[in-house]
Amino acid sequence: MKDMSMGKPLRVLYAFAIPMIISVLFQQFYNIADSLIAGNFIHDGGGALAAVNAAYPVTVVFIAIGNGFGVGGSVVISRIFGSKNYSRTKLCISTALINIIIFAVIFTVLGVFTAKPLLSLMNSEDLGATVFQQSVDYLNIYIYGLTFLFLYNVVSSVFQALGNSNTPLWLLIGSTIFNVIIDIIFVKYCNMGVKGLAWGTFIAQGIASIVSLILLLVHLRKLPKEDMHAEGEQIEGVKQQVHTHKLLENKFFSMSIWSSIMLMSIPSILQNSTVSIGQLFVQSLINSFSSANLVAAYGSAFKINYIIISVFTTISNAMATFTSQNIGAKRLDRAKEGLKGGMISTIIIALVSTAIYVIFARGLVSIFTSENNEEIISIGAQFLYILAPFYIIVCIKITFDGFIRGAGDMAGFTTSTMTDLIIRVGLSYLFVKAFRLGYVSIWWSWPIGWILGTLVSFIFYLSKRWLKTAQKKL
Questions:
Q1: Which residues, given as ranges, of the chain have pLDDT below 50?
Q2: pLDDT tens across 20-55, in order?
Q3: CA 307, 311, 317: angle at the middle one, nearest 5?
Q4: How far is CA 424 from CA 161, 285, 316, 350, in A?
């Protein structure tokens, strides 16, 4: 467990964030593994790749919901942990776990009944009967494993809230390697096609979630038995402290803590899922062009783009935890120093990634198709050429968002993200449906949304709304 209110701020932040960045890179490889294997081991002219990519935006919605619950829980847990109230930290963790299992069951039931109609609404049937049925099969199997997906995301967020970003990293590395191996076996040697990819993901996520939960329970036993002040002094009244500790130890669920978790989770869930739902609308718009190659190209390039966006988001999440812990420890000065360090880091990463994506765009897209489909490669590369030069803009936005969220200003965080989303989706439909500009105009809606969203985020930071919420904890 890592107390981020102690030590040199930037060193602590980087030591915490770097394993998370490596972890998210593996997470993205985990997410794109199915597309890579579909494009390279299922030789059907790109149909399987299009099927997986058509279902991908729906899976991202579920991932966003799981991440939203994880973010909400981690903010509450990290603040309580930062105040060194260890018995209440354990109660908060058990509440978060019970909460996510209940919601996982609810979303699984909803997903089973809505998967096929949702794909139909996204114009996936325009891609052909075979591709559509493959998408339905893939998505249904994926939904069966939502409990594993949700549980793993929340447990990883709990580890990170406690300052431990290494354990989730090693779990993810092992799970990713296992997922790729079992996918290849199911597809290449068992001839299970797209269904094999889905079952491979199901099994890998199931094992990862169970192992991660066991490790979390082991780690919780290492927490100190006595609660302390943020300054490190024992709580006054040993008898009262022991009584409180025993009382909390005998409870596994707290309505007050649940309310706090949901208060933080709902904006994150809405923000994450709304962005993902916006992606569903964009995917539907792309599907309406009735081109499997366009869907395959967009899905492949989107995943390549999402790798670097996820890195920015991970640094933002690390900053939110760092900010929240330090505010809980009454160290606002350290939180501000973390913001500066995070901003410098993301700008450097943005410049490097822009150069890589512009220079190697065609090569990156080509790894998704063994058939060297020139149309898929050209369309995908064009998407990256347009977006990559604007990474420096989006990294600034996401960095401010992380700080504001960690300080507790969820309204400001949500508003800046919704601005980006509404502009991006709205312009996509305006360009295509009203102005008839073609699919390339969809690519240009991304940087426009990023620019306006960054302006909103910066305005909220300057307004110091976040300071008012932070001062309530100081």
A1: 230-250
A2: 788 777 777 777 888 888 888 887 777 888 888 888
A3: 135
A4: 32, 13, 21, 20
pLDDT at 245: 46
∠ Cα 364 365 366 (to 5°): 95
What per-residue confidence (pLDDT) applies to 4? 66
pLDDT at 228: 58
Q: Tell me the Ramachandran region of residue 123: left when phi exceeds 0, alpha when psi lies from -120 to 50, beta otherwise.
A: left
Closest residue by Cα to residue 205 from 169, 183, 176 = 176
Q: How far is CA 314 from its chain centroid?
A: 8
Q: How far apart are CA 382 and CA 380, in angstroms?
A: 5
User: Is there a contact between 234 and 226 (Cβ–Cβ < 8 Å)?
Assistant: yes
What residue ranges do the domains of the chain occupy?
9-471
- How far apart CA 181 and CA 203 sit, in angstroms, is 12
DSSP bridge pairs for 234 = 228
**Cα–Cα distance, 256 to 171 (Å, whole number):** 31
Give me the pLDDT at residue 237, please: 39
pLDDT at position 212 is: 92
- Give me the pLDDT at residue 350, please: 95
Distances, alpha carbon 270 to alpha carbons 67, 78, 231, 257, in Å: 11, 21, 36, 20
Q: How far apart are CA 222 and CA 304, in angstroms?
A: 39
283-294 CB burial, b ≥16 within 10 A, e <16: bbbbbebebbbb
Distance from C-alpha of 174 to C-alpha of 194, rounded to nearest angstrom:
22
Q: What is the pLDDT of residue 185?
A: 94
Helices (H), 221-254: 238-249
